[in-house]
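Quick one:
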Amino acid sequence: MSDLPFIARLRSRLRALPPWWVDVALTSVVMVAQLWPFLAHDNPHPAPWHWWGYAVVITAVTPLLWRRRAPLPVLAVSLAATSMYDFVDNVPAQPVWYTGMISIYTVAVYSPPWPRLLMLFITICGGLLLVGSSETALRGTVLFVAAYAGGRAVSVSRAYAAVLEERAAEREREHRVEAERAAERERARIARDMHDILAHAVSIMVVQAEAGPVVIRSDPARAEAAFDAIAASGRDAMVQLRRMLGVLKEEEGPRAPQPTIGDLPTLAGQVTGTGLDVAYSTRGEPRPLPPDVEVAAYRITQEALTNIVKHAGASRADIRLRWEDDALTIDITDDGLGSGLSLPPGGNGLIGIRERAAACGGTATAGRRADGPGFQVSVRLPLTAVAARFTV
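Output:
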């Protein structure tokens, strides 16, 4: 077991080498192995070994340098050369023709099905017909078939590894795309939150700032309350912005809680300080909600009240929550006629309300009231989807 890490490292380093270096080293080793009988065996004849044997060995082994680029021609040259080795008698016996085994292994790895099967058939038939000894023919057949089987095993293993690598790359691409989409959704959420916070705070501050100079001489106490409301709105906006931007800092410690439905009465009280009479009511039995749904309900109500302050010219607004069996309904109505503050036009208030409701699986509608003057925003958040999220 202690040798396995060493073998794994050695295999990894060999795979990292350029293929040409590996082929040169392999050709050199095979050349030495095929020429070794000329040095290790005693020649029974008085003359040296015949030059023909050297020529055949060199001709059969040298093409291994191109075995990856032309596996079929290399095998054909190797088989043709080795079949001519015994044309003369004064040559040493070759126990195994390694060049033929390596060539057919390479054909099994790199060649298409029909050419490699045809070359395997030719190799086996040629060995059986040209080799005189049945034992030698059987040994050669077994060795060549084993080399071919090894090559096929390597080819299948590489193909399987390529498939796994492609799947891993595909999963990585999917994860990257999903991360980009999540980042885009997060940027959109932050943009909506900043819009809601700033629009609400600025609207209240403008209302109070316009009312303060009017009553500063006739009603100093009311003017002082207006300026206190401006300061409170500014501080509240700063707290919420710091809370929201804090989630972007990795080193941030415990984060302050996000606003929830339980903060709606406080929100109504803040808006009441602008001179708009805001009534808050709830009906039905409250249910636990996920934090993102709680935040969405608060922000939707905040944006609707901001729109009333900016555009409605209303004297009264109502916030009504209705807990039903399968949904939470939020209605925000006013009695305005549309002569609101002279604030810059534009914004994404109603669009943001619809997006927040849709993100929670709900719907949002907005339009003129059917029962009198004013405007109404109605939001329906399904509780069945919320319950399913809690049970997952």
